[in-house]
Amino acid sequence: METRYIFITGGVLSSLGKGICAASLGRLLKSRGFSVTIQKLDPYINIDPGTMNPFQHGEVFVTEDGGETDLDLGHYERFIDENLSKYNNFTSGKVYKNVIDKERRGNFLGDTIQVIPHVTDEIKDCIKKTLQTKPANIIITEIGGTVGDIESLPFLEAIRQFKKDAGRENVLYIHVTYVPYLKTTGELKTKPTQHSVKELRSIGIQPDIIICRSEVPLSDDLKAKISLFCDIEQEAIVDAVDVKHLYEVPLNLQKEGLDSIAMYKLNLKYKVSDMSGWKNLIDSIKSIKESIKIGIVGKYTNLKDSYISIVEALNHGGYFYKKNIEIKWINSEELEDYEHCKKILSDVSGILVPGGFGIRGINGKINAVRFARENNCPYFGICLGMQCAVIEFARNVCGLKGANSSEFDASTDYPVIDLLPEQKKVDDKGGTMRLGSYPCTILENSAAFEAYGEKTVYERHRHRYELNNNYRKLLNEAGMVATGVFEEKDLAEIVEIKGHPWFMGVQFHPEFKSRPDRPHPLFKQFVAAALNYKKTSN
Ligand code: GLN
C-alpha cells in the first residue's frame, strides 16, 4: 500500500490542541475513504508516561495491546474510531533505549553512535513500525512539544530527513501555531507565528499548511500577511478558532478546507467526504438544554486532563440522553469527615470514583462509596474506585474492621484487595502492571449484562491489585456480587450490590473504549441511572 506521511508540529506555545487538530484531520481524511492511523512522538526521556504523576502529564491512555501512552491517543481513537497500539506512541526515552540496546548487542559494528544518523534513523524506524503493525493510506505523526525546544530537535531532524526516504511529494508538514488576540487594541497578532515558522525553516522544514489557533476568526488580510511572511499559499492558512464543543473541530477545519488542501498537496485522488453522521451528532449536541450533575471524587481534580477519557465517556453517555454532563469536581481529601461528605454529595445525581494510586485521599473515597450505598445514589467505581467499593462494603456491611487493600495497609487483618502472586515478584514499576485488554465473562441477570447485552466483553486494564478471592464468598453472601469474571484466573472484574438501583465497580477502564457516537454501555447506563435518581430524589 502506498502511504502518505503528514507531520504535525507545534509553535509559539504548548497546549494548543495539536492532538485535536491531528485527530480531526484524521477523521476528515477517513470520512473521504482513506485508511488513517495517527501516532505521537514525545520528546521526554521516560520510556512511556506510565510512571509519571498525572499532575505532570495528565491521563495515561491504555491501548488494547497494553501500551501506556499519551492522552492524545485517546483523542485519536475517539475521533478516528480506530483502536491504536503501543506502536502509535514513542518517546525519546524509548528511542534512545532502542539505540543503546542495539549498541550493546553490537549491531552497529564499531560505529560511534550519534544523534545523526543513529537516533534519527531509529525515529524514522518508529514511524515505519507503526505502519507495519497496521498499514494505512495516510499516517499522521504528531511531534510533541514546541518548535524551539531542545528536546524535540532530533525528532524534527528525523522528519526533515523523512522526505528523502518517502519522496517529497508524499510528505506534508503542518505547523499549528497561536495567533494571540490583544483585547486592548482589538487586534490579532501574527508575529509569533512568523517567528515560529522561521525557527522551523532554520531546521530545514518548510511547512505546507499552517493551522492558526485563535480566539476570534482570522480576516483574509491577516491570512494574506501570514501567507506572505511564511511563503505559503493563502488557502493553506487554516483558521482554527475556539469552539464550544470539542467535536466541532473537524467540521470547522473542513469549512476552512484543511482536508481538501491536504489531499491536493499530497496528490491524493479526490474522494467525496461523508461527515453526515458526525454533523448529526454535533447538531444533536448543540440542541441539548438540560444538565445532570455528576460528582467525580478523585485526587487529581485540579488537573482535569488527569481524567479526560472519563469526562469524555460521561459526555458520550450524556449525548445519548440529550443531557449536558455537569461535573462537580471533588477532591477526595475533602470528604474525610462523613458529615461534611454528605453535604458535599447531596446535590449530585451520580458519583464516580476513578482510578488512582497511593493512599492519599482514600478515606474520602470510601466515604463517597458509603454515601452512594446508603442513599441509593448511582455509584460508578473504576479500578481504584471498584477497590474502594469493596473495602467500604467489607468494613461497613460485612463488619471486617480495618479491611483494606494491601496497597494502603500491608498489615491489615482483612486484605480484601491484594496482589496476585505473580505481582509479588515484580520489582520494576514501569510497564509491569496488568495491562491491556482481557476478556470478561458477564453473569446474566445483572446490570452489567443488561448494559452490554453480551456474555463476553473485552476491556482494558491498568492495575496491580485485585479483589482477594478469599473474601468473595463473604461479600457475595452480604450482597456484593461479582457479575463479571476473568475466567482464566477466576478474577472478579465487576461487582454490583444487590438491591441498589445502580452500584457498579469495575476493575478495568471502560472509559478508554467509549466513542462520541457510541457511548460505552456502562457509561450510558450510569447516566440513565443518574437521570432516574434525579427524578426520584426531587
Ligand atoms: N492502585 C490500584 C492498583 O494498582 C488501582 C489502579 C488504578 O486505579 N488504575 O491496583
Share of helical residues: 25-40%
Shape: globular
CATH class of the largest domain: Alpha Beta
What's the CATH architecture of the largest domain?
3-Layer(aba) Sandwich
Instruction: List low-confidence stretches.
Output: none
| Bound chemical compounds | glutamine
**In order across it, which strands form the biggest sheet?**
13-12-14-15-23-22-21-18-19
Instruction: Give the full name of the CATH homologous superfamily of the largest domain.
Output: P-loop containing nucleotide triphosphate hydrolases
Mean pLDDT: 95
Brief summary of the model shown:
With 538 residues, the chain is α/β, with parallel strands linked by helices. It has two domains: 4-282, 3-Layer(aba) Sandwich (Rossmann fold), CATH 3.40.50.300; 290-537, Class I glutamine amidotransferase (GATase) domain (Rossmann fold).
Could you outline the blueprint of secondary structure elements for this entry?
Blueprint: E1 4-10, H1 18-30, E2 36-42, H2 54-57, E3 61-62, E4 68-69, H3 72-80, E5 89-91, H4 92-105, H5 115-133, E6 138-143, H6 153-166, E7 171-179, E8 181-182, E9 187-188, H7 191-202, E10 209-214, H8 220-230, E11 237-241, H9 249-255, H10 258-265, H11 276-286, E12 291-298, H12 308-320, E13 324-331, H13 338-345, E14 350-353, H14 362-374, E15 379-382, H15 384-396, E16 404-405, E17 415-419, H16 421-424, E18 434-442, H17 447-452, E19 456-463, E20 465-467, H18 472-478, E21 480-486, E22 491-497, E23 503-506, H19 521-537
Parallel strand pairs: 1-6, 1-7, 2-5, 2-6, 7-10, 10-11, 12-13, 12-14, 14-15, 15-23, 16-17
Antiparallel strand pairs: 3-4, 8-9, 17-20, 18-19, 18-21, 21-22, 22-23
Helix pairs in contact: 1-3, 1-9, 4-5, 5-6, 12-19, 13-14, 14-15
The structure holds glutamine (GLN).
